[in-house]
């Protein structure tokens, strides 16, 4: 199937909308509790229950419009269903909070396995967006794997030792800011190993 062009604003809305909606709904419902089927659920669990179908809907629309969904998005959706579902079913918010840890550990493990084989799986995902020579991709892949591992540890520390509200802010803004800051600091590597620079030498 050929990839279809999707309006960038619509694409961003479908990718970021569920997370922002989760954040906004949590702020509205964090101090409330709801009795459903004789069981009392706090606002976090209710918002988590609503987040699962919203994420599925947005991901499905993105696939329908663009003709593709990245492997990273698929893994994220599966883990949201599993761990979000467990949180709702068992009325225990800890399972949903563990999800980012597992996502980043899985990505770090996959990248690490590729490194041991002398391959950069990151190159297959981002080659079009970041033209680098193979040695540059290998260095970047090692850095990203270590970065994902650090994010997994950070998530564990935040959800275990801080309040739920702190974790929600960290999940919504902290992780995104960390990813942005990380790639902003890779300018030297891109300049050194970029294929455009290699063509000029």
Write a short abstract of this structure:
The chain is mainly alpha-helical. Helix content is 78%, strand content 4%.
Describe the structure.
- It is a single chain.
- Strands 1-2 form a two-stranded antiparallel ribbon.
- The protein is mainly α and 201 residues long.
- The C terminus is likely disordered.
- 78% of the residues lie in helices and 4% in strands.
- It comes from Pseudoprimorskyibacter insulae.
- Keywords: Cell inner membrane, Cell membrane, Membrane, Transmembrane, Transmembrane helix.
- One of its GO terms (cellular component) is plasma membrane.
Sum up the structure in keywords.
201 residues, mainly alpha, 2 domains, two-stranded antiparallel ribbon, disordered C terminus
Q: Percent of residues in beta strands?
A: under 5%
Q: Poorly predicted ranges (pLDDT <50, ≥5 residues)? A: 197-201
Distance between the ends:
38 Å
The neighbouring-strand order within the major sheet is 1-2
Could you say how many structural domains there are in total?
2
Rg over C-alpha atoms, rounded to the nearest angstrom: 19 Å
Please give the count of helices: 9
Number of strands: 2
Mean pLDDT: 89
Summarize the amount of helix as a percent range: over 70%
Task: Break the fold down into its secondary structure elements and pairings.
Layout: H1 8-29, E1 33-36, E2 39-42, H2 43-66, H3 71-90, H4 94-116, H5 121-126, H6 134-161, H7 164-184, H8 187-193, H9 195-200
Antiparallel strand pairs: 1-2
């Amino acid at each position: 199937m050929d990839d279809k062009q999707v309006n960038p604003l619509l694409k961003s809305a479908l990718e970021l909308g569920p997370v922002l909606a989760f954040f906004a709904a949590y702020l509205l419902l964090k101090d409330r509790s709801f009795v459903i089927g004789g069981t009392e659920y706090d606002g976090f669990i209710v918002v988590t229950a609503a987040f699962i179908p919203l994420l599925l809907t947005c991901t499905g629309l993105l696939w329908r419009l663009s003709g593709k969904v990245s492997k990273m998005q698929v893994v994220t959706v599966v883990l949201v269903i599993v761990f979000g579902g467990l949180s709702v079913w068992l009325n225990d918010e800890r399972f949903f909070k563990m999800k980012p840890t597992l996502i980043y550990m899985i990505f770090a493990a996959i990248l690490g396995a590729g490194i041991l084989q002398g391959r950069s799986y990151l190159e297959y995902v981002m080659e079009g967006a970041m033209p680098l020579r193979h040695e540059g991709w290998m260095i970047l892949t090692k850095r990203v794997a270590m970065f994902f591992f650090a994010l997994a540890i950070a998530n564990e520390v935040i959800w275990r030792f801080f309040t739920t509200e702190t974790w929600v802010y960290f999940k919504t803004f902290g992780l995104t800011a960390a990813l942005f800051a990380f790639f902003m600091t890779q300018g030297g590597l891109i300049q050194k190993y970029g294929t455009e620079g290699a063509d000029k030498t």
